[in-house]
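Internal QA ticket QA-208
Title: Verify multi-chain structure generation after dependency bump
Assignee: T.L.

Test input:
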Amino acid sequence: MERIKELAEAELIQRCLNNDVLAQNELYRRFAGKMMGVCMRYAKNRDDAKDILQDAFVKVYLNLKSFKAEGSFEGWIKRIIINTAIKHYRKNLKLSNNVDIEAAYDVGFDSDIIGKMGVTELMDKVQTMPDGYRTIFNLYIVEGYQHNEIGEMLGISEGTSKSQLARARNYLIKLIQGKNSSANL
Amino acid sequence: MNTEQINRFDELMREKLNSYEETEPDIDLLVHIHARKNRFLRTRNLFTLIILLAIVSASIVGGYYLSNGSSNQHQTPSTQTNELPSLTGTSARLPVNGSNNNAISFPNNFAGTNSVAGSKNYNIGDVNNNHVNSGNVNPTNHLIGLTNINAAPKRVTVYNPIMAEGLISEQLSDIKSNKNKTTAENKDDALNTSNGKNNPTNKTEKDTCSATISYYTTYDYGFNFMAKTNNPKMQLTWLFGDGKTSKEESPKHIYQKAGQYAVTLTAVDKTTKCKAETYTLVNVTTGVDLTASSISGTVFADAEYATKTRVDLLAYNSITNVYERVQSAFTNNKGLYEFNEIIEGNYLIKASDYKDYTSSYYGNTTDKEYANSVAIFANDYKELNAYDIQLVNHKSNNVVSKNNTDSGSKWMIVLDQNNNPIASVLVNSNGNIQSSGNLPQGNYNLMDPSTGKTSGNLNVGANGLKIGSPDVSAGSANGLAPKGEQELVLLPNPAIDYVKVGLNPANNSPIDVRIVNSQGALVQSYTIDNGNGLTSINIGSLPVGTYYVVVKQNGVTTSNRLVKTLDSSK
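Actual output:
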């Protein structure tokens, strides 16, 4: 077991492809923790996050042969996780994206409050966001996708992505600071 | 917030959330993967792998797995089929062997064996879809007996409920078989000679061994090889010529690139050291990217039907001219279904309410995912016609390959006189039809599915829709040019209770408005007496979904897509 933990990534992948069960397990062990973190961000709750992680890892195993060594393996897995997560909430996304966009109103934020906030607590807030907001928030702010890419991924227009992001930000700030927050910086 | 604040906020979020990580991976997740997901797994190897993986995982965490109901995790595929009677995706359409002149044998490991053997009667047809025979599968030996099979070889298809295919008698390809060097027959075979040199250890004059290859191809460009040896205990090794190997008796192989490949079969008898080697050449006309994609979608249905509706994915077989089931899936309790590892092409998707097909839609894997939604409404069964949504797999031999390089090619929906979508055809940028099918003679409107707008028309002559047929055309333009100069205005879109309808430029003539759902069924109609300006139409009673608004003014039809949504304020 010690040895397999020290395997280089490329060799690990190769052994996985050769149906080496120890390697398969090691692959899971290496990435599950981090990817669970990604799932948590996209999911409503921990159970959903687990579901997404399961679905995604099945896809990782099924499609391992199509991984090209050109990019980072972790990035490849993450992309599968994200796609699976989007799919998980897609039905809900459709509805929220079709809702008329009202003008995004301005909310101020207190960087101290947010700066001191614990990660677990923040994750709770993120999971409370509506599915559409949460997905776009993750794709744009955390993952760094552009609005045109997000539009393509979700089947919405670039404009919708932009306005939903603005609303998502405000929504989250209000969630974090509480409704009565008067901070306006 | 100004830009600077926004950037600061985004930065904070990114930093914090990216640092989130679960310290200990949930090993039990893998167990769930197996228990929940095995219907998605396509190959037995992978299936085994996941089980092993679960077991290994369990051992790592010190028996956790075993102490948590391991017996449930070791369900065999046949146990699973109790939950999902009939077909799972895995069991659909396995090849069956016909090794002699009067029986087809189903593999013992046929997932869903329960539904194969038993009292069910199977129709058996030949390669031209002519009925040959019918019979029952013997539950003990998995054989289906055939009579009246005249001449071998013959490829047959066993119809419902399992789509299976097999050879009656052997259809031997260009085979060079050999025996070991102690036999006399192989002296004029070059391959044998070299092979014989490899077997100096064989000393028994009477020990002979032989191996032959036979194969047939299937709709998905798969080559189904079968080894026949004179000794069942021989160890087999296949080299497919593209670097891939197999040790199975009847491996299926799909080539990723077109070309000619030499397939080599080596059979070794470990006891006698007798070794036989043979090869055959196969011509692969179409390579397949197996990494392609998945199709998934939603069945919009009444609650009763949304759960565990069976959804079939069918591909058009240009040889037999019938749609063949590629995979089946059941919807989950949210109405979602998914087909994995789909090769590029066009498919027909059908959903059933346990008894009969009630609805269908087409799928195109270039849409990758979410392309398809199937609607089933309990009181709105739509009888399928023979030509309902005919789609031609554009990789089939019928379709010239130039459409792959013609960037102007487009799949267009064919609308009948009532504006019901009845088929889909590929039109290239010159307006030439690239699809064939059995549409009845007549004039049809073509609709661009990406815009929902009518653009072009299709005239089908007495000979049906055939590629290159002189009496088929997609309109005087290229079939893709917008037809009519008026634009159909729908405001707002998406709409909630009301939608304003009008034509631009407008005139005073009356407008006939029809709203059809995504299955082409008319759900609402309305006549606007004066076509000048926009007219509000109440759509409050329509279910949420996608519709097509088809308007007719002065004999000219224009259509557009309308999305009806929920009122978020309620």
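Spot checks passed. Confidence is low (pLDDT under 50) at residues 94-104, 179-185 of chain A.
Status: verified.
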